[in-house]
From TrEMBL:
PANTHER family: PROTEIN RDS1. This is Protein rds1. Residues 24-54, 300-345 are annotated as: Disordered. Residues 33-54, 320-331 have a biased composition (Low complexity). It comes from Penicillium frequentans. Residues 1-21 form the signal peptide. Keywords: Signal. InterPro entries: Rds1. Residues 300-319 have a biased composition (Polar residues). It comes from the Eukaryota.
Amino acid sequence: MTNWNSALWLGVLGIMPLASASPLGLSEPSAPPTASHPASLPHTPFTGTPTTTGALTASSIGTGIVESASVAPAETTYVSDGELQNAEPAPYVPAGGVGTEGQIPVYNAKSDFDYESLALALYQEWIELDLFQDGLRRFSAKDFEDAGLNAADRDLIAFMAEQEVGHATLISNMLGADAPKQCQYDYPYTNVQEYLDFCQKLTRFGESGVYGFLGHLDSREAATLLTQSITTEARQQMIFRQFEGLFPMPVWFEVGVPQSWAWTLLAPYISSCPADQTRLVWQNFPALWIENQPTLANAGKHNNGTAFNNTLSPGTNVAKSSSKENPNSKNGASGASVTPEGYSPLSFPGRRVDLRWEEPGKAVGPNNSYVTSTQAGEAKFVAWASQLNLTYTPLLGINGSSGYTIQPDMETYEGDPAVNGTMFIAITDSDIFLTPFNLSMINTHVVAGPALYQAD
Ligand SMILES: *[C@@H]1O[C@H](CO)[C@@H](O)[C@H](O)[C@H]1NC(C)=O
Ligand SMILES: *[C@@H]1O[C@H](CO)[C@@H](O)[C@H](O)[C@H]1NC(C)=O
Ligand SMILES: *[C@@H]1O[C@H](CO)[C@@H](O)[C@H](O)[C@H]1NC(C)=O
Ligand SMILES: *[C@@H]1O[C@H](CO)[C@@H](O)[C@H](O)[C@H]1NC(C)=O
Ligand SMILES: *[C@@H]1O[C@H](CO)[C@@H](O)[C@H](O)[C@H]1NC(C)=O
Ligand SMILES: *[C@@H]1O[C@H](CO)[C@@H](O)[C@H](O)[C@H]1NC(C)=O
Ligand SMILES: *[C@@H]1O[C@H](CO)[C@@H](O)[C@H](O)[C@H]1NC(C)=O
């Protein structure tokens, strides 16, 4: 046996060989430890009284963010003609960029915005870790098989939980000692099909919630590492779509949404957090129900304008499913097929969408210690955030806190129906024009929502 082989073998056994024993320097891997978290927690609603109430606030709060009257001149001075405009700092190195001049990267939060955004992402990673394990604990192998998932598919879900340990560790390390800890959760699903739909929708707002702030972080270093974890989450979202029998990716672009949208969607499933948990600054908007959520079971032209009350909860609006029924077969797909054959779109432009929303002032989230609020006026529009686009349709038939709207017909680019995939809608008081990089300015106009709309 050569030194190399014995070093490898000892490494597999978990025995540390002498470093000098290996001419290739191969020794026991010694990676940093993962963040500690409870092995298993109960999944029950919170019944106590919170010791504190409301979002985290600073000692001074301004009156609002005002839109600039014009574009800063420096934004448009670069001559975009394909020639180098400045001297190169080194061979093969174009001038410009941030953090490219030999600075030592520091992977931490550099502002309140960074800390609060990363802390939100950490709350998300912790719930995913618990969620992926919960389905595997709660449902039997037979339950999964009935939904079209085999043992290897279940192993993949278990591996996704391991990925979340890594993501939670990464963000905890960047935040430091006061990073939010794992909480206790309470989920609405009652069978495998609903579980897969919940996972698919939860990972959608996890992913989109990060895209909404990535480009705005002060810490480019944190943004770089977060990108490297959110791309894994994007793969998880697509796999859950496939498990459920949905077309894997009907869109050309993945939408980004503001932090308060992600927090509004996430918080209701957190029942309690440990004492001294670091709190968040983000807003919880009043919840929005989609009364007739498009589903695999009702795909196509049915379910147009009939209130079905077909979701388990507002916000995520996971479609109710009977455990006996396997809606995958409706599209000729097995749960785990890569691309279902004969797939027909779940919704279509011109479809009537029935909506109902809650009034503000409801206690939600960890220990019921956050309170829903809105700064908006009268409910007038439905905002559709999908791909690169934000568009509005009029809110019709308003009766108290319910109404309906008609699914819009628009393309992101020619040939790409914009309202598609798992996307976001919200009730607003205005049809303010916004683009992906200033989308968070919608928040003061949100009456209720967001809700996840299963366009396809
Ligand atoms: C939330 O509930 C947990 C468990 O009862 C408790 O330890 C924690 O202190 C509570 N936190 C708040 C903010 O009420
Ligand atoms: C919605 O359906 C649930 C049962 O799934 C029922 O308990 C509830 O009363 C219904 N709500 C409305 C507004 O119809
Ligand atoms: C989503 O996009 C696919 C591919 O372009 C298209 O076939 C489908 O009809 C779209 N779905 C909706 C709801 O428009
Ligand atoms: C769906 O409902 C809307 C509004 O009631 C109507 O205009 C449209 O024609 C309907 N479409 C189909 C395919 O039934
Ligand atoms: C408005 O909603 C109430 C129930 O909340 C219902 O009784 C009433 O019929 C509705 N009005 C109209 C015009 O639909
Ligand atoms: C969708 O977004 C793209 C990219 O910003 C833009 O060019 C297009 O005009 C938008 N389409 C609609 C219907 O808003
Ligand atoms: C958002 O950005 C677009 C440019 O992409 C600009 O036209 C629009 O006025 C901005 N909206 C606000 C409210 O600042």
